[in-house]
Specification:
It is a single chain. The chain has about 150 residues and is α/β, with parallel strands linked by helices. The protein is built from two helices and eight strands. It has helices at about 40-50, 100-115, and strands spanning about 1-15, 20-25, 25-30, 55, 60-65, 70-75, 120, 130-145. Strands 1, 2, 3, 6, 7 and 8 form a six-stranded mixed sheet that branches.
């Protein structure tokens, strides 16, 4: 499972011009599910993101988590995080999970994030979405449950 985590001042996602998920300060999580991912990957990644210290403390150091600052989380499914661009000009998505499995693990990840006590909003799975954000910092972190980055 892969995630692009962005610290945001605010973020929202629209489907066909209608806001379907919106947060204030917190994290935008773009989540990609791979074919080999499991529920354990979803639990690991949710815990890692909830506890990751990327918010400033009183001294300006990144020492506080989204939980510590009472931030919110917007989770948006993005299978293109599994693009393999090593050959040719067209990305391959063969390592991305099939939609049925991806939906199940995306839902599990969202449930795990909610279990941490955070307010969690979502996009709509397998829909064309417009994602709006005001990046704070900017702070953008790549995380992989296989720990490859």
């Amino acid at each position: 499972m892969r995630a692009v985590v962005q610290r945001v001042k605010e973020s929202r996602v629209d489907v066909e011009g209608t806001v379907v998920g919106e947060i204030g300060p917190g994290l935008l999580v773009l989540l990609g599910v791979g074919e080999a991912d499991t529920e354990a990957d979803a639990a690991y990644l949710a815990r890692k993101i909830a506890e990751m210290r990327i918010f400033a403390d009183a001294g300006g150091a990144m020492n506080r988590s989204v939980q510590d600052v009472h931030g919110e989380v917007l989770v948006v499914s993005q299978f293109t995080l599994w693009a393999d661009c090593r050959k040719g000009r067209r990305p391959s998505f063969v390592r991305a999970a099939r939609p049925e499995k991806a939906r199940e693990l995306y839902t599990r990840f969202v449930e795990e994030m909610k279990r941490t006590g955070l307010t969690v909003a979502t996009g709509r799975f397998q829909e064309m979405m417009a994602v709006h954000l005001v990046n704070d910092g900017p702070v953008t972190i790549l995380i992989d449950s296989e720990k490859t980055f």
